[in-house]
From TrEMBL:
Protein name per its UniProtKB record: Kynurenine/alpha-aminoadipate aminotransferase, mitochondrial-like
Keyword field: Aminotransferase, Pyridoxal phosphate, Transferase
InterPro entries: Aminotransferase_I/II_large, Class-I_PLP-dep_aminotransf, PyrdxlP-dep_Trfase, PyrdxlP-dep_Trfase_major, PyrdxlP-dep_Trfase_small
Cofactor(s), by name: pyridoxal 5'-phosphate
Keyword Transferase attributed: yes
Encoding gene (name): LOC106805852
């Protein structure tokens, strides 16, 4: 039992007058039945409902954390009991980790373009972003070495101003759709070890890798506690339940726990119970079957998107075929800034794209890229609208109309 900062080993017979927890008998919810798409139903009993509606430990509902622990061990071939906290989506854990690690004007190593959610977290710290180059196989290790060339590995112990954080989206990158190869991960991890970098492995698209065999994670190769990993159920179970989880070295995770205790207290216990009961019902094998179906759906969507882009945009735009995730990163040669193209042309054609500058550390810089998402659009919609935003009118060049 925990009372404020006091840790108490409580016998079952203890009557507590210390905690400020409401009486669950006063909650109007009794139990619930949730119908699944496979025709089965999940029954949330009155006892489970009381657990789900009551305050929970800040790291997460214990039974749920145990399932997540077993999952991480199996998926990432871990030989130890990982430290895992449930977070309100992976964004929550990511935000708390950056807040824990960042000072104003600190250096941050990250691929550019990168996820706007991470850039938004960092913005108040006015970070000095060391932008890393990537290609269809993700971040180039030589780009990381070049960014660190101002320092020596030994400076990590003496120079407080040198970079200490490497932010990575290893699979199905947002916005690029690229995935790091295992060989590059190994090389990047070695560089991080040499320079004593903390690797922030933001991997919400892990289960949306299109390769037959998923690439091993940074977590799976971590031998000295330098990886903070962020997973999410948003892309495979539900975005609205807001349930993610983070895995990392105990000293840093303890700091995160303190932050959770004084901010949101804990992620929705009812959402945790709902996912827990689903995972108990289908088992690990059933969960892996489900994510395989999800992966196959997005791979099919990707193929439809690439077919539509090839049909309508060949010779007008450039792109690499995504290796995972939900996005295609499209370059429009001859267009200096796609923001104007989107606002003036794409919207008139009733299609919306994300402008490339939204994914840059300095969003005021122009970009010739757009991000197109294939997660929701039907094949007909993809074919109808894929080229309409950048396709030239009256056979004029793109430059002349944008």
């Amino acid at each position: 039992m925990e009372c404020g900062a006091i840790q108490i080993n409580a016998p079952p017979s203890l009557i507590s007058l210390a905690v400020g927890m409401p009486n669950p008998d006063m909650f109007p919810f009794e139990e619930a039945t949730v119908k699944l798409r496979n025709g089965k139903s999940l029954q949330i009993s009155a006892k489970q409902m009381k657990t789900g509606l009551q305050y929970a430990p800040s790291p997460g509902v214990p039974a749920f954390r145990k399932v997540l622990c077993d999952m991480q061990k199996k998926i990432h071939n871990l030989t130890y009991e990982p430290e895992i906290f449930v977070t309100t989506g992976s964004q929550d854990g990511l935000s708390k980790t950056f807040e824990m690690c960042m000072n104003v004007n600190d250096y941050v190593l990250m691929e550019e373009p990168s996820y706007p959610g991470a850039l938004g977290i960092l913005k108040p710290y006015h970070p000095r972003v060391l932008a890393l180059e990537g290609d269809r196989d993700g971040i180039k290790p030589e780009s990381l070495r070049r960014a660190l060339s101002l320092w020596k590995p030994s400076d990590a112990q003496t120079d407080a101003d040198m970079p200490k954080i490497l932010y990575v989206i290893p699979n199905g990158g947002n916005p690029t759709g690229t995935s790091l190869t295992y060989e590059r991960k190994q090389e990047i991890y070695q560089i991080a070890s040499d320079y004593d970098l903390l690797i922030i492995e933001d991997d919400p698209y892990y289960f949306l890798q299109f390769a037959e065999k998923p690439s091993p994670s940074f977590l799976s190769m971590d031998v000295d506690g330098r990886v903070m990993r962020f997973d999410s159920f948003s892309k495979v179970l539900s975005a609205g339940l807001r349930v993610g989880f983070m895995t990392g070295p105990k000293p840093l995770m303890q700091r995160i726990e303190y932050h959770i205790q004084v901010s949101l207290l804990h992620t929705s216990a009812l959402a945790q119970i709902l996912i827990l009961e689903l995972l108990k019902d289908i088992g690990h094998a059933g969960f892996m079957d489900h994510v395989t179906n999800v992966r196959n759906f997005y791979m099919s969507q990707k193929e439809k998107m690439i077919a539509a882009a090839t049909k309508h945009l060949k010779g007008l735009a450039e792109w690499n075929e995504p290796t995972g995730g939900m996005f295609v990163w499209i370059n429009v040669p001859g267009v200096k800034d796609t923001s104007k193209m989107i606002s003036e042309r794409a919207l008139k054609k009733e299609v919306l794209l994300a402008p490339g500058n939204a994914f840059l550390a300095d969003s005021t810089r122009p970009s010739s890229y757009v991000r197109a998402s294939y997660s929701l659009a039907s094949e007909v919609e993809l074919d109808k609208h894929c080229g309409s935003a950048v396709k030239p009118c009256d056979h004029r060049s793109i430059t002349s109309v944008c």
